[in-house]
Design a protein that fits this description.
By secondary structure, the protein is α/β, with parallel strands linked by helices. The protein is about 30% helix and about 25% strand. The chain has nine helices and 13 strands. The structure holds guanosine-5'-triphosphate, magnesium ion and zinc ion. Zinc ion binds next to helix 8. Guanosine-5'-triphosphate binds next to helix 6.
């Protein structure tokens, strides 16, 4: 963990995984041929690679394989599945999704992470050190999916007044853009009510760097479930990658919470510069108002975004991140 994989290693892992997937898909086909059980609706509530756990309509959990040529089934997906034995089954269809969050995997290929979500909770913590760039990338994904996003600062128990002031300087502008920022401590179970309210009657996903406390928050909101949490590695100062499977939990008060593995980086699926512009919600009033209709907002004369930044209507750090991302398109 923590070490970077070489190109060759990645390719090798990719090949092995590909072979495993083919084998699993083939056995899924065989199992389906032998089964005469009817198709029934289910929900993917946990996924690790090709291993799925489906919840049926009675709330039973069934480990399932995925039928060939279905693409990727992910947490939150509504599916049709068939029993192929005692407590096992095969997923034979994926229902159309209301939304799907996509992110690049270890080798940069875009893969769905969760489906049918309607809230994003982006978790930050004093440790590991939060970065605006990563936050902005998540927020762009939320904007492009038209899903409300909430910023959640966890581990407030670690913040002294100076730390709190430093956080406020670094991230205090987000509520003004329209993103609620709530402060919680999973450890002390403080400040959780606004989080519960945000999740109630929704399907929310917890996102953020490894070690910020996503799983700890999920446990705090789900007193009856034990969720594996790890200790921050004192050696590297980074969190251990404790969560490997994305998992959906039902909250007793209603609503669903998806816990996902932490990431070091995230890249939203952005088609072009116009897409990116719409990923920054506070840019909207200024779009189309630059002197040049094809303005790239890189320092052209009479750029409306630059003027808004100069006048304090747009935070210059947001414009800077926009420029950086635009350059990487
Ligand atoms: N002081 C403090 N520590 C916390 C809090 N919440 C979580 N932690 C600790 O932070 C570490 C990481 O917590 P996790 O819940 O595993 O973090 P995660 O975001 O799920 O990490 P990944 O699964 O790797 O993405 C653990 O050692 C937790 O005990 C908190 O509110 N305060
Ligand atoms: Mg976790
Ligand atoms: Zn411009």
């Amino acid at each position: 963990m923590g070490r970077r994989l070489s190109q060759q290693q990645r390719q090798r892992i990719g090949e092995i995984q590909q072979r495993r997937l083919q084998q699993a898909a083939q056995s899924a086909e065989q199992l389906l041929q032998q089964s005469d059980s009817p198709q029934q609706p289910g929900r993917v509530i946990s996924r690790f690679g090709r291993n799925l756990i489906i919840e049926d309509e009675q709330g039973r959990l069934i480990p399932c394989l995925l039928r060939q040529n279905l693409g990727h089934a992910v947490c939150g997906d509504r599916v049709a599945w068939q029993a192929t034995g005692d407590n096992q089954g095969v997923v034979s269809a994926i229902e159309p999704r209301r939304s799907v969050l996509i992110r690049p995997n270890y080798s940069g290929q875009e893969r769905p992470l969760a489906a049918n979500i309607d809230r994003m909770i982006i978790v930050l913590a004093p440790e590991p050190i939060p970065r605006r760039y990563l936050l902005d990338q998540y927020l762009i994904a939320a904007e492009l999916l038209a899903i409300p996003a909430l910023i959640c600062l966890n581990k407030t128990d670690l913040l002294d007044p100076a730390g709190e002031a430093a956080f406020e300087r670094e991230f205090g502008d987000y509520p003004g853009i329209g993103y609620a920022l709530i402060r919680v401590s999973a450890r002390r179970e403080q400040g959780l009510k606004p989080l519960l309210d945000a999740v109630a009657q929704h399907t929310a996903i917890l996102l953020g760097q490894s070690g910020v406390g996503k799983s700890s928050l999920a446990s705090a909101l789900l007193p009856d479930r034990e969720i594996q949490t790890g200790k921050l590695s004192a050696f590297s100062g980074k969190g251990c990658h404790t969560t490997t499977a994305t998992t959906l939990y039902h909250l007793p008060q209603g609503g669903e919470l998806i816990d996902s593995p932490g990431v070091r980086s995230f890249r939203p699926t952005v088609k072009d510069r116009s897409d990116l512009e719409h990923g920054f919600r506070e840019f909207a009033p200024y779009l189309g108002r630059c002197r040049f209709s094809n303005c790239q907002h890189k320092g052209e004369p009479e750029c409306a975004l630059q003027q808004a930044a100069d006048q304090g209507q747009i935070d210059p750090r947001r414009l800077e991140n926009f420029r950086h991302m635009a350059a990487n398109l």
